[in-house]
Amino acid sequence: MDILQTIKIAMRGILDNKLRSFLTMLGIIIGVTSVIALVSIGQGATSQVTEQIQSLGSNLLTVNITGRGANTTLSYEEAMEFGESPYISAVAPIMNGSATVKHGNKNTTAQIQGTNEEFLGIRNYKLAEGRFITSADVYMRQKIAILGPGIAEDIFGLVSPVGQEIKINGQIFKVVGILESSSSMMGSNDEDIYIPVTTAERLLQNRGVRTIYMQAASEDTVDLATQEISVKLSRIFKTDTNSDFQAYRIFSQTEMLDTLNETTSTLTMMLGGIAAISLLVGGIGIMNIMLVSVTERTREIGIRKALGARKRDILSQFLIESLVLSGIGGVIGIIVGILMSRGIAQVIGITAKTTYSVTAIAFGFSMLVGIFFGLYPANKASSLKPIEALRYE
Amino acid sequence: MLIQLEDIYKIYKLGDTEVHALDGITLGIEQGEFIAIVGPSGSGKSTLMNILGCLDTPTEGSYLFEGKDMSKLSDDQLAVIRNKHIGFVFQSFNLLPKLDAVENVEVPLTYAGKKGPARRERAVKMLEMVGLGDRIHHKPKELSGGQQQRVAIARALSTDPPVILADEPTGNLDTKSGTEIMQILKELNKSGKTVILITHDINIAKQAQRNVHIQDGKIIEDVKVAG
């Protein structure tokens, strides 16, 4: 049997019934389109979030102290001791609290974050203007402040705040820098005011550190650093490292990435799965039309059998027809799916990512649907007895 | 002996009653014969033709074609017999309406495994032989009944089968076209083909060399005629 000839005959059959063929293919088109579009957008979103997390520096460790009993914080000095570990290259403790901020007649409440000179580097923040806290500022308990871009605009409007003075809880602070806006999964710096940690100790009358950002020496030492921190904190808070209760929590970037990847890949799979169901429905549409086609063409089948067509000739004719239908549907679906994912991505402001594997899987699946749902009608056609098929009117 | 039917029965069950469409047919056909099987409608001649053409199988009895027992062949082997050894000419032409004349003629060649230009060349040659060389790209509905039947004959001849099985080939045609078709069949017979003609029309049957009359599934007369 001549495959090319069969494809030609199948194509002609499809073109003879343009509307019907299109409606038949529509199911496959919608299925492939939704698989491609949903998975592309899902993967685009995933890679965007992954990049965001990686931009925080993949060596970042965040320690949150919840404490035990009355003992709920670390002192600044205790926190800085973590820096002695060879696995940890930088430590930035955070002492925070809210305070009233005044400038001229503007009056607002802001989160005050007391930290040290390492903070900027560890969190991968950038300065828009001026400078950040220096070690000298920490040592000298300088009353200087670095503002987040949001609060800077709230208080100063369009005037540059660098060099201006603000009152925090009645004490005068000099603004020396403004941060660039940076918001991520880890929160936003927009409304925060950063001051030296030693200054914060006095201002907030609160000698405790609840959050410590640390940078592991390298990506490979993240786990070792985590272990070491854990052991030290367990000693301080007298907890067992193996017990369920923990006085602290340590997040590493890798851990966060793993969790996220797991979540998004589950989500992508789910979306793809839902879309695959519509592909299946499309397949049922193909089967339906092919069955109608077999009935309509019973006489043709009879004639072909009388002229010497074997079972496999008829089988392959109908199978190829259903494959051509699902194949064309698949190709149209891929094109529409790519265009659609680009369009949707643009609207929601992400970059869609259509991988070859998704395209190949979607197309392969549509062909599989064509074979699977074409097989029954094709088999029915090829099993017709020549004499019965010929008699059929 | 080309074809040897021995005690062929074809029995249909309709509810409780059995209908003997063929009731013990014994018939031999020699290579190169021009034989007409004649009978009124319902006589069983169409059933006989279907069995001769390997489109149907008898309930009982043996059918030897070129010495081979047809009851022992699989469906696909029977398809090969239909393809290479028997050429069918039907009353209603049975052309594929979506294919043009030459493509219709190519259908058996395709199943015979012939490919490309050789297949096309053979099909065109067959159409020229039946006088339709100028109409090879006409669709069946663009052709007259006589022309359609000639396409069907060209198709039947395409794989050069030794036997032509014609079922009321003139039944749907006017007298003139019918005469032309009969002429072609006679010429084919002269060129060495075995022609088996099934008809209810005594006048058509008389043009063959041998008439086998069938009634109620039985052969009632088997005579040589002038031809």
From TrEMBL, chain A:
Superkingdom of this protein's organism: Bacteria
Cell compartment(s), UniProt: Cell membrane
Domain MacB-like periplasmic core, chain residue ranges per copy: 21-229
InterPro entries in UniProt: ABC3_permease_C (IPR003838), MacB_PCD (IPR025857), Macrolide_Exporter_MacB (IPR050250)
Any one GO CC term of the record: plasma membrane
Major localization class: membrane
Domain ABC3 transporter permease C-terminal: residue ranges: 274-386
Keyword Cell membrane attached: yes
Membrane-traversing stretches: 21-42, 269-294, 314-336, 356-376
Single annotated GO MF: transmembrane transporter activity
Keywords in alphabetical order: Cell membrane, Membrane, Transmembrane, Transmembrane helix
Membrane topology: Multi-pass membrane protein
Family the entry assigns: Belongs to the ABC-4 integral membrane protein family.
Protein name: ABC transport system permease protein
Organism whose genome encodes this protein: Tepidanaerobacter syntrophicus
